[in-house]
Amino acid sequence: MSEKAVLTFRDKKIELPVLVGTDGEVAIDITKLRDQTGMITFDPGLGNTGACSSSITYIDGDKGILRYRGIPIEQFTNHPNFVEVAWLLIFGRLPKRDELKAFSEQLTENELLHEGLKHQFQHLPVDAPPMAILSATLSNLACYHQGFLALEDTEALTAAAARLISKVRTIAAFSYRRSRGWPIIYPDPKMRYCANFLHMMFSIPFQQYIVTPEVEDALNLIFILHADHEQNCSTSTVRTVGSAKANLFASCAAGVSALWGPLHGGANVEVIQMLERIHAGGLSPESCIEAAKDKANPFRLSGFGHRVYKNYDPRAKILHECCDRVFSSLNRQDPLLDIARKLEELALQDSYFIDRKLYPNVDFYSGILLRAMGLPTNMFTVCFAIGRLPGWIAQWKEQHDDPSTRITRPRQVYTGNDAIDYVPMEQR
Ligand code: ACO
Description:
Strand content: 5-15%
Radius of gyration: 24 Å
Shape: globular
Number of strands: 6
Largest sheet: 3 strands, antiparallel
Oligomer: single chain
Number of helices: 17
Bound molecules: acetyl coenzyme *A
């Protein structure tokens, strides 16, 4: 017989079913709580609430484990291929050779933007934030691809996913070109996903940007490491919008808007700004560690600590190694990387950080890598969004395919006025 949890309140006692995940995580099923008792639960920020069951991504924050469809994240680091990971996340298993080839071909077929959409870039202010452009343009895709507003089968979902995953990098690169006042560079169908993005970002007419294998691999890796992270803020947003049966374009555009928030996708920008301040001010890493520990000082060590990981974020470990590889193969130096390495070394030996289980998170090294590739800081979160898109699509599909999905509609504990009378304007 399956286990039950017993809830006793005043003179009432009810039994609640218990769900157990693959990893043994126990969840008390309260779906019938209000029907049976008239009560609701209170969990601002939903930190204790399982809002869905999912078979896409597994995280064990205490042990520092991250798996996509069961595969440990570390196993994607040799010859990383973001498109293969995108397929895995969306369709639930590794693609066969012909499946990956067909999906890659679909990406190539969809890399151009409709001319009407392209013209919209010309009317935007040059200093428009790229995340605003990205969110608006993903939403606008629905105007040009109305056939995908309702996705009835896997074939239509695959086609819509290919459109989104392909066009997002074209939109991102066009928004960057617009901000620089540079002419738009069209995608090159002969190039692979990441190399094509870098080409659209950095080539200039009559001078093709040369993509080195190390940089291409590093960008693949950054996208892979950001591809999904279960029910984070932007993914929950995509699911919430999708639960109303809103289309995939609108749902993913909402995800971009959530990701834009500095508490979510903007943290790697803060890391770079912190490292720049330390460098420009000639501050010592030791003094920054002391400042981060000082409760009277609001300074926090950006890129350290995580709501879920109470161990080394496995993505940070991979990116740290990737930084070492890229910088040595390009024979590059970056004083910010030296400062970051020193901060990490000091923090990992300091009882303040050890006791609170504060380790580097994914943002600690991703900004340094993106900077080394020549990406400006206002494109960091855009790169996060390109990486996260397959995860959003996978989560949207999982929810869409689940017949038990209900529209997301939380309750509240109302604390406002009791019923009062309307007061006419002249009597107020
Ligand atoms: N520097 C110094 N002290 C810290 C830091 C930090 N980066 N992070 C947490 N602490 C301390 C807190 O002051 C607190 O100390 P106390 O117990 O003495 O009061 C303790 O560690 C626990 O901190 P919380 O804020 O309760 O931890 P929480 O899990 O709520 O927050 C968060 C996690 C927001 C990521 C936090 O660690 C932080 O602000 N880090 C810096 C910003 C950052 O890197 N954000 C990116 C997160 S990764 C991502 O979103 C993709």
